[in-house]
Write a structure and sequence with these properties.
The chain is mainly α and 64 residues long. It has a domain of 44 residues. It is 56% helix and 0% strand. The protein has 4 helices and no strands. Helix 3 crosses helix 4. The protein starts with 12 loop residues before the first helix and ends with a helix. The mean pLDDT is 83.
């Protein structure tokens, strides 16, 4: 039986560098995997920092 790997939900690079769309399941899955956070943590970070990936990363770094 072949080995099945889990592959992160990929987003195009031009989309991935801009903002996090919490209404798009693929975006939420991608960013929770990429940032190593739960959906709840991602939603909280976006509530505090906005949808900018740079600002969310900064918020998550300062809240740990």
């Amino acid at each position: 039986m072949p080995h099945v790997r889990s592959v992160p939900a990929a987003l195009p690079a031009e989309d991935a560098d801009k903002s996090i769309d919490l209404h798009e399941p693929r975006s939420v899955r991608y960013w929770t995997e990429t940032l190593g956070v739960s959906e709840e943590q991602l939603h909280t970070a976006c509530e505090h920092a906005g949808a900018s990936v740079e600002e969310v990363r900064r918020y998550l770094g300062s809240s740990s």
